Structures are given as structure tokens and as C-alpha cells.
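Practice record 12: protein with BES.
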Amino acid sequence: MLFAAKAADPARLNTPCLVLPVFEDGRLPEPSASLDAQTRKTFSKLLISGEMSGKLGDTLLLQQIEGLNAQRVLLVGAGKQEAFNAKKFVKLASAAGKALLKHNQLNASVCFSGFEIKDETPSHLAELCARTLVTQAYRYSTTKKVSKVPELQQITLLTDSAERSAVQHALALGTAIGNGMNAARQLGNLPANICTPTYLGQEALALGAKHRKLLKVKVLSEAQMRRLGMSSLLSVGHGSEQDSALIVFEYKGAAATQKPNVILGKGITFDSGGISLKPGAGMDEMKFDMCGAASVFGVIQALCELQPKINVTGVVASAENLPSGRATKPGDVITTMSGQTVEVLNTDAEGRLVLCDALTYIERFFKPKSVVDIATLTGACITALGSIPSGLMSNDDALADTLYQCGQSALDPCWRLPIWDEYQEQLNSNFADIANIGGPKAGTITAACFLSRFAKKFKWAHLDIAGTAWLQGAEKGATGRPVPLLMQYLLNNA
Ligand code: BES
Ligand code: MN
Ligand code: ZN
């Protein structure tokens, strides 16, 4: 799928299909309004007669309109003008994409530049449009036969000449973010018998080999981690035949003197709960317990595509959590890389056990400007926030505010929960410095409190994506979130 920005007169443009938005109340955004005037009110008449409702997402394909050079026009409903916003724009773009495919219009010119939305620029809408169409094209097919469907080929956004180059850049950005989301979805969707920690390590090395100039990749083996004292991370994989792995990506687009922003992903390739075994129903979904890691892969891939002049370090802490005769047991005490001891009261609270050693590793080997970890950490986060925002917790108010804002503008929202000191005592243990669970209350917060003990030396935020990383039900599959939020953050805050 290719996107282009073009400054052209839509009335004169010879294109197989011209996509025009129309509002429900009969009002038309530019250039639909001017084109309507030039075609003896063709579009207004259809809205008045009710042949086209203008409701958000409704579409109507028209052939050879007198007064236009386009061979066809696809009208797309934008709903009510006063209610129109960026979220609705995404629905409109998605409906347009689906209708183009349905009518086999793989090459089209799109007039999306005339929307006036508060705090939105034409370039940002263009970015969202590209991201929407790129993610819409993703199909999982690795372990399932799917019929080949055609893909959109060339989508041209018509713009003002003054905005053309900004829109062109935004299209490249939206494409890279969409591709990054699709990469994250693909890793998330792969079954756990394919997507093991070793597989993730190989994929990381392959990405490094593809982008040798910009990206350095290192995969630490179990032996190397043992030498560093990462017993907590290693304790999670003890019950599994699969080796654990720590993956380090260093994306270097700026001078080496610039400290990196670090992103850290939870990469539990399957979470059975371990000896504290989960119930059987829905356990298949625990293959998605590496979606935090997948978002790190997606971001690193998108950065390699865009090549911005920033430094970003991506870390993935990966293990498989299974019960066996060698598995960690409830009550076991382990010593983390930081020296703090942990009583493992529940082997199903394993995410924090891999992340804590990764945080200490980051503290020791990088001088991070900030660290954001991304983890499908707690079922309690789904109870608290559902599947709309990711949970956000941080030891730094400014960082939390920034991430919140990035989520809003990227349409990949997150919502902050407090990690006040009063919660910390829920992690007291009689036999170790910290317990790995904090009891039934505020499970999302106490999980973050656990992590905060390993994030004292830098600005740190934690995104709990348990509710947002994948969809349940008929459309079960990974979403690619929060790649858009992370990209917005990293690109804005270099
Ligand atoms: N990966 C799970 C969290 C999870 C559960 C994400 C369901 C999405 C859907 C995590 O490792 C876990 O098992 N957490 C426990 C923590 C508890 C033992 C303190 C949980 O949420 O039940
Ligand atoms: Mn678990
Ligand atoms: Zn887990």
C-alpha cells in the first residue's frame, strides 16, 4: 500500500475513484462543497433524497459524475458536523477503506483536507488515515489458510500546496506506526509453541541484521543472566523447557552523548500461572502475555523505518511460566539482581519478577533519560479500567502527564492510577524484603509499587496493557497497542 500527498484540483483530477466526505445534516466539508456546486448539486440532492444518509461510515459509490474528471466518486458519511472529531475521522477512514476494497477500487484519491477539528491539523489526520488503512490490511495467516484478498495499492491524499510536504511526511509516519502495530500484532498472535523466548531473540537479531547501521541487538543467554545475578527473571522460566532471554535493542539515530529513552516489555510467551496454576478457561489467551515485548518490537521496527534522529533503547524480558518439578514454588525466596530479596507468594505474579531484574539491568548499563515499561501485568487492571485505556503509573508527574497527552493525541489512551507510599506496605513479607503480591486490594497499583522499588534512580512509568493489548471474542487478536502512544512519546520527547 502506497500513500502520496498531492496538491491538485479535485474537479480536474483524472482518477479511478475520488473519495468525498459528506455530513449527515447535508453540509459538506471542502472540497466536497465546491465540487457539489460544480456538479449541479449532485451530492446535496442525494443527501436530501436520503439515497445517501451521511451517517458516520455510510458509503455510496457513484459512476461518472458530469463536471468531474474522476471515473467514480465514493461518498463517505462523516456523521454530524458538530460532533466530528479525530476518533470519528478514524471511523470514516476505516469505512472508506472497506468500501474501496468492496468495490475493488484499489487506487483512489481522497479529499480529507477540509475538516476543521479543534486542535487537529491536516497532517495529523493524514497520519491517522495511513495508520488506519495499514492496520486494516493485516491478516493473521501463519498457521491458518486464509483466502487472498486484494489490497489497496495507491491512496493519494489531496491537499493544499502549502501543506503538501507536511502531509507527505505524516503519511510516512502513519505508515510506519501502522506497520509497527502490525508487527506487534503478528508476534502477539503467534502461538506459544512457535513464539518462545528463543524465537523472540532470533527475531530481534534478524531485525538488527536488517538495519545494521541504526540498530544494535544483543540477546543475553541464561548463563549470561546468571552471571549478572538475574535470579528473579530466571526463576520464572525454571519450570519450562524453554530458555529465558533478555533482549536489548539500541536504536542510535542521534549522537552517542544523548541519553536514550528506554522502553521495556514484558515477554512472557506463555503464562500458565506456574505452580499457582491458572484455571483452564481462557488460558489460551495467555500466549498474549508477551504483548508488552511485542510493542517494543513494533516501536523499534517503526523507528528503523522512519530513522528519526533520536536514541531509544528497547529491552525485552522473556520467559515461559510453566509448572514442573523444577518450577519456583509459592514461598520460595529469590535474590534479585538489585540485591533485594523477594518471597514468591504466588507464581502467577511473574511479570514483575522478570521486569524487576530488567529494570536493574537498565540502571546498571544505561543512563536512561526515562524508562517506560509495558506489561500485561494484572487482571485487576481490566477490572479497574476495562479495555479502553491502558493503566498508567509513574514516579514522575511530568512524565505521567506527557504520556497521558501522547495517548490522547495518538488515540491510544492511558489513564493514571496513584502509586502512593501507603500502598507499599501491602508488599511486606515475613521472610523477604518484598512479597511478590499485595493481596486482593488494588492489584494493579501494588504490582506497580513492586516495580517502583527497582526504579528509584530514574524517571519511570509503567503501562499496564492487560485490557488493551488484545481483543477477546469473535475478533480475538492482538491490537498493536500501545505502539502509537509510545511512538508519539519517543518522537516528541527526544
Ligand atoms: N499475565 C497476567 C495478567 C493478566 C491476566 C493479563 C488476565 C490479562 C488477562 C499476570 O501474570 C497475572 O497472572 N497476574 C495475576 C496477579 C496476581 C497473582 C497478584 C492476576 O492478575 O491475577
Ligand atoms: Mn501470571
Ligand atoms: Zn503474566
